[in-house]
């Protein structure tokens, strides 16, 4: 059993039999049928199908192990998911442990993604809420039934709390571990009684995270920590331009470097295999590689953006349309026109990409990594290694961040690990390591995007028309997910947050052009909302100013059909003291509100902007995520979103010069410093609606809130990201 405080660096290979019928353990869980997953997000559980599964094990030592089907990249979902099950079960939190699930989509699929196992889109809690509650409730009822049988009393007189089953009238009680083995033989209840919220003792409370101690004392095992017997390390020399291929290479000098064992060509470049990481890196430096750039992207960022501006002159594919905005704009009292640009962005997670792969004694393969799309990753590696998917066993480790980077539709770095291992002759376990420079310059990126908007108001300040066009490369076109996500040439992840705007705009059109450059792009924390929210919220602010109406009041007038958005907007404004704006020169408040991934977030930014510098003093956030499973984790995620996004708002960008990435490390792509981190206040709306996610929704609103605050402080409108600090000089 995995102890969450002292993880085993070499986890045992789980088998379905061991998970389902471990000796002396009660094992229960439920699977949501993908077809009923959406319906299950509401209170009606009639269509949730019970099937044998493996989410909870109760050991003879009273430990309760919750099997986590999602990757924890620092967002705390191991604690959140364990909380849901443990509360329904009535477990003692001090006895709760977690372990990551093996790759098996028949047991551990993400019901909001369909028939695949994966983590993303802030869905971990949302898709597991009723699944884990039912699993915990079923286990509780089985323990109660066993106790009632032993004590010859009605089950209605049995209670469960803090890991103890009690019969209050007789004073008898038993610990979970005393009942688990016998209870495991009982039928699994198909419709166990779920607790009323008034009975919750863990959900909604600030309880300690299960991973805090191990991550503090260094005993938590990340994939970068994995050391298998006789393990070797590989690094890959990849093309400096995207789309280039190996023309020829000379490995003679590399092979003379101490510690270098082999040099092999793989589809992504040339791999140097050595006894350790340093030797592999030095061997790579000694390589001579000639690259074929005939199919490579060779343009600079400015050239790509220039092409975007030309394409934006046309209407593009229609993603959303109502009324006739062109006609409406002709009769508008005032028209605001604006262009917004957004650069490529790296994910820049603290732990660079890496994975370890070895051949097992049974002829299968064991792989150790932070797996985010297990079904895709397992199938991709199996195809490269020439075996069926079940012969590739995935052992999930903690991941030091991702922000979307580990969840590629092509399973890129894991495919590369399998290719290197195969090319090496499979003689020893291979640990593929990407350096920081590899990770930052090797793709994938948040797409670069351009938006052009024309919006008009009448003489009373009401919006009469909004014509909007954007250009940006689709993440999904050309990927295995295209058929599911792209409709009529429109990638929903490109247009989300604008094509479905909640603002009551009577005449509105949103058109999109799909970019065609050769730069690999990928979802970046909050995906399309990273740019659409910024454009919508800055433009709404501009219209409020043009109408001479308070920007909070103006938003509320357009959100009469969006009560939860209005709710967080009012709460954030109230807690920030919006009615009492700062009078200091060069200081202002800005606001933004947005829905993403089913969650509602508003932020008010208190900013000082003077002499070419922007200082964010305070961020006040209000969030509505349904039931707040763990308020402390929610606050931490919003605080983390501010820290993560702030550097992208103020300075970060990935740029190309003649097709080559210019930013290779944190010196040129600087993360947020502790010294510039604002004070962050997070206010959570109480709710009994099924919970949604919070890993991503804190990101989209930060940029527009700060940009709008800069305008309030200086009277100068900064639209594009990162904000051009020269625009606040002399303010």
Automatic annotation (TrEMBL):
SUPFAM superfamilies: Molybdenum cofactor-binding domain. This is Xanthine dehydrogenase family protein molybdopterin-binding subunit. Signal peptide: none annotated. It comes from the Bacteria. The lineage of its organism: Bacteria, Pseudomonadati, Pseudomonadota, Alphaproteobacteria, Hyphomicrobiales. Residues 217-295 form the Aldehyde oxidase/xanthine dehydrogenase a/b hammerhead domain. InterPro entries: Ald_Oxase/Xan_DH_a/b, AldOxase/xan_DH_MoCoBD1, AldOxase/xan_DH_MoCoBD2, AldOxase/xan_DH_Mopterin-bd_sf, N-heterocyclic_Hydroxylase, OxRdtase_Mopterin-bd_su_IorB, TAT_signal.
């Amino acid at each position: 059993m995995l102890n969450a405080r002292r993880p085993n660096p070499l986890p045992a290979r789980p088998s379905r039999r061991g998970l389902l019928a471990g000796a002396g353990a009660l094992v229960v869980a439920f699977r949501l049928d993908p077809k009923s997953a959406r319906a299950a997000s509401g209170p009606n559980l009639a269509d949730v199908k019970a099937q044998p599964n493996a989410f909870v094990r109760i050991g003879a030592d009273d430990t309760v192990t919750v099997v986590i089907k999602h990757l924890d990249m620092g967002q705390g979902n191991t604690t959140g998911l364990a909380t849901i099950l443990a509360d329904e079960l009535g477990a003692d939190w001090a006895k709760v442990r977690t372990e990551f699930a093996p790759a098996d989509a028949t047991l551990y699929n993400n019901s909001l993604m369909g028939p695949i196992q994966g983590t993303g889109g802030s869905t971990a809690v949302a898709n597991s809420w009723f699944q884990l509650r039912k699993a915990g409730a079923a286990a509780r009822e089985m323990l109660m039934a066993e106790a009632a049988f032993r004590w010859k009393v009605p089950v209605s007189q049995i209670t469960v709390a803090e890991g103890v089953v009690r019969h209050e009238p007789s004073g008898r009680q038993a610990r979970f571990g005393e009942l688990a083995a016998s209870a495991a033989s009982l039928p699994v209840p198909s419709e166990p009684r779920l607790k009323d919220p008034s009975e919750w003792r863990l959900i909604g409370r600030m309880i300690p995270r299960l991973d805090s101690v191990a991550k503090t004392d260094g005993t938590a095992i990340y994939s970068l920590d994995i050391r298998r017997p006789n393990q070797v390390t590989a690094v890959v020399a990849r093309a400096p331009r995207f789309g280039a291929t190996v023309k020829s290479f000379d490995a003679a000098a590399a092979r003379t470097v101490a510690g270098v064992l082999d040099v092999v060509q793989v589809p992504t470049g040339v791999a140097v295999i050595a006894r350790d990481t340093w030797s592999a890196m030095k061997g790579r430096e000694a390589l001579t590689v000639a690259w074929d750039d005939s199919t490579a992207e060779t343009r600079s960022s400015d050239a790509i953006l220039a092409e975007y501006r030309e394409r934006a002159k046309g209407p593009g594919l229609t993603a959303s349309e109502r009324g006739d905005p062109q006609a409406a704009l002709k009769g508008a009292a005032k028209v605001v026109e604006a262009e917004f640009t957004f650069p490529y962005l790296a994910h820049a997670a603290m732990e660079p990409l890496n994975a370890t792969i070895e051949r097992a004694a049974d002829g299968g393969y064991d792989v150790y990594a932070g797996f985010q799309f297990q079904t895709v990753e397992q199938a991709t590696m199996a195809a490269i290694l020439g075996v069926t998917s079940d012969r590739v066993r995935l052992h999930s480790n903690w991941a030091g961040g991702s922000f979307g980077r580990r969840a590629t539709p092509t399973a890129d770095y894991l495919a590369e690990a399998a290719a290197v291992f195969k090319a090496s002759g499979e003689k020893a376990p291979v640990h593929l390591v990407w350096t920081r420079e590899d990770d930052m310059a090797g793709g994938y990126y948040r797409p670069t995007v351009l938006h052009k908007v024309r919006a008009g108001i009448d003489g009373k300040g009401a919006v009469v028309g909004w014509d909007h066009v954007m250009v940006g490369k689709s993440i999904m076109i050309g990927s295995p997910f295209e058929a599911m996500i792209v409709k009529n040439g429109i990638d929903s992840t490109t247009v989300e947050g604008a094509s479905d705007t909640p603002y009551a705009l009577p005449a509105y059109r949103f058109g999109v052009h799909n970019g065609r450059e050769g730069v690999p792009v990928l979802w970046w924390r909050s995906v399309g909302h990273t740019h659409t929210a910024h454009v919508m919220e800055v433009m709404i602010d501009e219209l409020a100013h043009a109408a001479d109406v308070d920007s909070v009041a103006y938003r509320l007038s357009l959100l009469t059909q969006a009560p939860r958005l209005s709710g967080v907007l009012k709460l954030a404004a109230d807690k920030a003291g919006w009615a009492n704006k700062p009078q200091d020169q060069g200081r202002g408040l800005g606001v933004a509100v947005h829905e993403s991934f089913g969650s509602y977030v508003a932020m008010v930014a208190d900013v000082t902007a003077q002499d070419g510098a922007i200082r964010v003093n305070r961020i006040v956030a209000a969030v509505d995520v349904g039931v707040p499973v763990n308020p402390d984790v929610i606050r931490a995620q919003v605080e983390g979103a501010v820290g993560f996004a702030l550097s992208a708002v103020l300075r970060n960008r990935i740029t190309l010069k003649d097709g080559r990435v210019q930013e290779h490390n944190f010196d040129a792509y600087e993360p947020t410093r502790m010294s510039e981190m604002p004070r962050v206040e997070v206010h959570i709306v109480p709710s009994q609606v099924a919970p949604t996610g919070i890993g991503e929704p804190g990101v989209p609103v930060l940029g527009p809130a700060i940009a709008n605050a800069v305008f309030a402080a200086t009277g100068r409108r900064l639209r594009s990201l990162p904000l051009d600090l020269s625009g606040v000089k002399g303010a």
